[in-house]
Write a structure and sequence with these properties.
By secondary structure, this protein is α+β, with helices and mostly antiparallel strands. It has one domain: Arc Repressor Mutant, subunit A (Orthogonal Bundle), CATH 1.10.10. The protein contains 4 helices and 9 strands, in the order E-E-E-E-E-E-E-E-H-H-H-E-H. The strands form 3 sheets. It has a 5-stranded antiparallel beta sheet, with no helix packed on it. It has a two-stranded antiparallel sheet with strand order 1-9. The longest helix has 25 residues. The N and C termini lie far apart (about 70 Å).
């Protein structure tokens, strides 16, 4: 399944964004196509792609599963339908990918948006499967824990007779400060 964590859509703004950091008043995002960083305030409507699903005749289908079906159909390439195709062509193509979609509640505009998002993710190289990324993260975590263990072995604690104090704090032995002079 395709991993869409950290990819968001901002209402009123075109394109997709990747979450970079958290700021005092919201989040800092980076555009997938133009790589520009923007501060998004907490009052702005933001949707993460991993939380979006589409209506079907049974249970709702997460958009990750639908994009995985498009990925498998196109063998990793761009979707055959773009945002400017005919309505019937878009509906037929979407019907091939997700035949059990609810024809009354899923509009052609929703299908167009899905295909434009898929093509944007595909052209920027952000279509990654969940399993391959987790394996890489586990390897880097294992390497980091090994490095920490080696660093802990190298560190030798020296115990001197002096009392330990915080950095920048003067130790005042036997003097009581009352605040009056």
């Amino acid at each position: 399944m395709i991993d869409l964590t950290g990819i968001i859509s901002i209402s009123g703004q075109p394109g997709l964004y990747k979450i970079v950091a958290q700021s005092k008043n919201g989040i800092i995002v980076e555009g997938l196509t133009d790589k520009k960083r923007v501060n998004v305030y907490a009052s702005t409507k933001v949707s993460t792609l991993s939380d979006i699903s589409m209506f079907t005749t049974g249970d709702d289908k997460p958009i990750e599963e639908i994009m995985t079906a498009v990925f498998e159909k196109e063998k990793g390439g761009a979707a055959a339908i773009d945002g400017k195709s005919d309505d019937k062509a878009v509906a037929n193509y979407f019907g091939e990918i997700l035949p059990e979609y609810d024809k009354e509640r899923v509009y052609v505009s929703n299908m167009r948006k899905l295909f434009s998002w898929y093509n944007a993710l595909q052209t920027t190289g952000n279509l990654k499967e969940k399993g391959t990324e987790k394996e890489g993260e586990e390897k880097t975590k294992a390497i980091k824990t090994e490095d920490k263990a080696k660093a802990a072995k190298k560190t030798v604690s020296k115990d001197s007779g002096k009392a330990k104090t915080s950095v920048g704090v003067k130790k005042t032995t036997g003097v009581r400060k009352t605040g009056t002079a």
